[in-house]
Amino acid sequence: MPILEIDQLSVAFDTEGDVVTVVDRVSFDVEAGETLGVVGESGCGKSVTALSIMGLLPKPAGRIQGGDIRFKGESLPSLAPERMRDIRGNRIAMIFQEPMTALNPVHRVGRQLAETYALHQGELSADIVHRRCLGLLEQVGIPAPEQRLSEYPHQLSGGMRQRVMIAMALASKPDILIADEPTTALDVTIQAQILELLRDLQRETGMAIIFITHDLGVIAELCSRVVVMYAGRMAEQAGIEALFAHPVHPYTRGLLASIPRLEEEPKTMLTTIPGVVPSIEDLPSGCRFANRCPYVKDLCSREAPELVAASPGHRVACHRWREAEAGTLENWGS
User: Is 289 left (phi over 0), alpha (psi -120 to 50) or beta?
Assistant: First the structure.
């Protein structure tokens, strides 16, 4: 049984003129101990899905409009606030995209780490909490941890701040860690260190990881399965090998084609996906990729495609795939 199940999740936001559905019938699950990647352009609904899981949608504008989120069989949206606080940060933890805004700039690192224990393990003595905070900073590879506990976030580098965020998330040994683009603002060397750290911590603790990113290179390195999202909907879901070897959805193919390759001729133009993502206030009723798709047909503009099986463990939402006469991934694009 999956540890986390997202079932037909829809999330809406109130705007000045209307109610906008920013996540539309998203469904996936996460097994214990696995790393699931969620990939897509900015604004596709990745972070909103994560905030929905954590019960952190901005109120009163944001709300879950439909579907369910189940953690170990327990429906999270229907939980009392007290029960949700027991789960949030304790059984399900999250690393936010920008640690400088997630960390409180006026409190020392040690106080912010200790707060995690105060919220979820309030009976611990100050001496035990201090030792555990030191151990967490050592675990995530921060040098001179005693000194770092007394420093403020602005005194740390970007990589160190991200490691502090990881330490805070690991304090309660969660079952699931949601990492929302944790390496976006870091240089490639620090990014590689953070990814290696997450892999090591997962091996040590057995936690599941939901890794949210727009970088397919990171997905290939870290994840076993991947969900591709576009404009609030799922476009494709597959195992990592199947997705890279036989991408089905035109959007996924476009993303993979846009990755620079060493064998390409130097100083040539990069491959791009023409057009722009539709505005959330003017989303089409049909396929949301229709205005950028090279295979678009009339049906695509009228009717939203449903997720169907392309092969075992591989699902895609595409009319062209559903109507293809040859039902194999290899000759889909012919």
Answer: alpha
128 neighbors 135 (Cβ within 8 angstroms):
no
Say whether pLDDT at 330 is over 90.
Answer: no
Dmax over Cα atoms in the chain, in whole Å? 68
Dihedral Cα 254, 258, 261, 264, nearest 10 deg: 90
3-state secondary structure at position 110: helix
Going by C-alpha positions, the residue among 175, 209, 214 that lies closest to residue 195 is: 209
Q: Which two tokens stand for residue 208?
A: 């599941």
Report the candidate in 143, 142, 156, 151 with the shortest Cα–Cα distance to residue 111. Answer: 151
Closest CA to 236 of 244, 227, 245, 224: 227
Residue whose structure tokens are 């019938």:
25
Joined together, the tokens standing for residue 259 give 């990755």
Read off the pTM.
Answer: 0.90
pLDDT category of residue 289 using cuts at 50, 70 and 90? very high
| 3-class SS of residue 109 | helix
Beta bridge partners of 35: 209
> What is the C-alpha separation between 71 and 64, in angstroms, rounded?
16
What is the rounded distance in angstroms from the CA atom of residue 291 to the CA atom of residue 300?
9
C-alpha of 310 from chain center:
23
DSSP, residue by residue, 139-207: HTT-SSHHHHHTS-GGGS-HHHHHHHHHHHHHTT--SEEEEESTTTTS-HHHHHHHHHHHHHHHHHH--
Quick one: how many helices (H) and strands (E) in the chain?
13, 12
pLDDT tens sequence across 61-91: 899 999 999 999 999 999 999 999 899 988 9
Helix spans in the chain (H) = 46-54, 81-87, 99-102, 109-120, 126-139, 145-149, 158-170, 188-205, 216-222, 240-245, 250-257, 298-302, 319-323
Angle at which helix 158-170 crosses helix 109-120, to 10 degrees, equals: 20
